[in-house]
Amino acid sequence: MKEFISLVVPPKEKVDPAWWFAIQDDNVLVRQESSGATIPRSVEFVQSGLRVSRQHYLGQLDGCHCYAVEVPEGAPPQGMAFEGLRKIYGRINEDLFALAGRALQIIDWDRTHRFCGRCGSETRTHTTERAKECPKCGLLHFPRLAPAIIVLVRRNQEILLARARRFTTAMYSTLAGFVEPGETLEEAVIREVKEESGVTVKDIRYFGSQPWPFPHSLMIGFTANYASGQIMLNDTENVDLGWFTVQNLPPQLPSEMSIARKLIDSFLNSSPK
Ligand SMILES: [Zn+2]
């Protein structure tokens, strides 16, 4: 991974070559290459003639400036396309993918926080912080981030996986849910597993985290051991759930890009084949 330094105040002079993360609706402008896709540089973006309606400085990737801009309309230039994040994953460098997710969330926050939620006045962008400020009542609006726990529950050589109602395919995944106000992450793990499966868990251990820009989550991953209870299907959330072994996995697992898959793979790698 390259070094990224998050910054808010842009450099006084435009320094090339900078990366331009241009957002149109929920899509990012990418240049198609034979080996995949990449993000356009400043020169290419300026030559495209696309009009910019919002602009945020993101910081530096290995010393190279990065900007997020909103392009409200217009066709992509020759050899480029506006594509969704899911579509570019795996075809684009991991650092650029992470920044594309960041750019999309910052532009989306900017366009959905134009007015103060308390007094209704028009907000303005804070000059030194990543915040929108209300000039009338002073309320600060920060980019929205929704923490969600995701947990791999293990019972000896079995793991608990569910096919969520929201999945459009026959995929099975680990249990996950948003953290409620006033709740610790561990409490969220216990509540979510109980609600979704009827099972009580113990030995909750932090596994890792992943920004999940669909649309603005932070997935916080845990492993846990089964403590007690019989599994029960909560059919408002899932269409199926069950215990699976290495020899008996569901036909479809989450994409390799996801922390869900990394949790499942950690179990597979630690199990006797
Ligand atoms: Zn206000």
What does this structure look like?
- By secondary structure, the protein is an alpha+beta fold.
- Helices cover 20% and strands 36% of the residues.
- The protein has 5 helices and 16 strands.
- The strands form 3 sheets. Strands 1, 2, 3, 4, 5, 6 and 7 form a 7-stranded mixed β-sheet that branches.
- A hairpin with a 6-residue loop joins strand 8 (124-125) and strand 9 (132-133).
- The longest helix has 19 residues, at 94-112.
- The chain is globular, with a radius of gyration of 22 Å.
- The structure holds zinc ion.
Q: Count helical runs.
A: 5
What is the residue-averaged pLDDT?
94
What are the secondary-structure elements, in order, as H or E?
Answer: EEEEHEEEHHEEEEEEHEEEH
What is the distance, rounded to the nearest whole angstrom, between the alpha carbons of the first and last residues? 32 Å
Q: Give the class from helix and strand content and strand pairing.
A: alpha+beta
Could you tell me which ligands this complex binds, including any ions or cofactors? zinc ion
Q: Please estimate the helix content.
A: 10-25%
Q: How would you characterize the largest beta sheet?
A: 7 strands, mixed
Principal-axes geometry comes out as globular
Oligomer: single chain
Strands, count: 16
Radius of gyration: 22 Å
Q: Uncertain runs with pLDDT below 50, 5 residues or more?
A: none
Strand content: 35-45%
